[in-house]
Each structure stands twice: as structure tokens, then as C-alpha cells.
Amino acid sequence: MAKRCAAGEGELQGNEEMISPAKKLCTSAVSGLRRIAVEGNIAAGKSTFLRLLKESSPAYHVISEPITKWQNVDSPGDSVTASQQCGGNLLDMFYREPKRWAYTFQTYACLSRLKAQLRQLPQEVASQPNSTIFFERSVHSDKLVFAENCHDSGLLSDVEWNIYCDWHSFLLESLPLHFDAFIYLKTTPQTTWERMQKRGRPEEQDVALDYLKSLHEKHEKWLLDSENKMK
User: Fold this and answer.
1) Which of 17, 31, 104, 196 gives 43 a disulfide partner, CB atoms 3.0 to 4.6 angstroms apart?
2) What residues make up the catalytic site (predicted)?
């Protein structure tokens, strides 16, 4: 069972080959490799925390959140996807018309994250003994925090939520992603809202504090409730 640990609020500011099932998609099969997911609210300081970790040791490798895919921006080393060729900033579309785009965004966010987290590790990482790979969020928070919050707030219908849960469970059973631990960057909703305004990401300028409060409650329930189990 993966370990969970919470980090208190600090001063943080703001063509690769896919591994085939035959190679066991769970890359923790690499000897000595540890896989840790860093979780937290929007603007909790995850990117800064991960950058500091990466700079602190050559044994640390970071898989960042694929947000550029959601913004329709071609990031270095990635090919342009069919959705990008069609145009559209899906992150912005979700924030502007959440009920219309909730299912589309939550589906694509999870699938793009899954793709990023299943890429074959660089040789220098895979060959290094006792290395650790840190992930900016996981497919578990995609479901248990963001998608579930959309359902609870009425942005996802019962039918959409049931379909989401069905394919999400199937993918995790078919493409196992084991995590050895979860690090939770616990930050107050007010602080994350202030940081979000400060960093000035255009899509986030109208995000309400109440939305961050709801996400905070979901993180607390998932990561700090000892009775809760990942499904």
C-alpha cells in the first residue's frame, strides 16, 4: 500500500517510446526505482517543490503535469495531437463553460497524464540505482479530486460519471501504475487563490475561491482520511 505524507504550508511560490504491456507498464519494475506522486490544490506549489527536488539530486527525475497539452501548446519533444490540430484551449474552454466541457476536459486530462506517466524512462534514469521518479499529480487525483468534484457539483451527470469511473478503473487494471508514496502539499484555499492570481495564468483569472475550497476538501478526504481507500 502506498504511503501518504502531508507537507505543511511553506514558502513555495508558485518522441519517446511508450512501454508495451509485455514490458510491464508499471515502470517500478526497474530495480530500485521509487515512484512518488506529489499532490495538492491548484497553485499549492507543486511545480516549485518538484523543481527544487530535481535540483537537489541527480537521482531525482520529475514528470510534470501535461498542462501544455490542455492549453493547445506544442511542448518540446511532443508531437502535435489530433485535438491540437483542431485547435482550442481545452483548459480555458472548461473554465468558461464548465458544464459543457467538464467531461471532455476531465477525460483528456486523465488520458494525457496517463500517457505522460507511462513513457519509457530515459536511460540515465532507468540505469541509475536507487533513483526516484516524482509525478506532478496522478491519475488517482484526476478521479478522486477533480472528476468527483465535477460530479458532486453537477457539472458531470450521473451517466457521465459512471462512464468515467468505468473506463478509469479499466485502464488502471490494464495499465498498472504503482506509487510507493504520495506527498501532499497542504495549503489553505485562500493562499492557493492568491498565488493563482499572482502567477497570472490567463485561463485561471476567473476561478472562484469556492472552487478551490471544494478541491481542498476533496484532497483532505482522499489523502488524510484514514478510512478512505483508493478505488
Assistant:
1) 196
2) 136 (proton acceptor)
- Single out the residue of 201, 180, 182 nearest to residue 192, CA to CA: 201
pTM comes to 0.81
Q: Residues 16, 17, 136, 194: which is the catalytic one? A: 136
Whether 16 is in a domain gets the answer no
136 given a catalytic annotation: yes
From residue 159, give the alpha-carbon distance in Å to each of 21, 146, 168: 30, 17, 14
**Total tally of structural domains belonging to the chain:** 1
Annotated binding residue 211: no
Please check if 106 is assigned to a binding site.
yes
Flag whether 59 is marked binding.
no
Q: How many CB atoms lie within 10 A of CB 162?
A: 11
Give the domain range for residue 149. Answer: 3-10+21-224
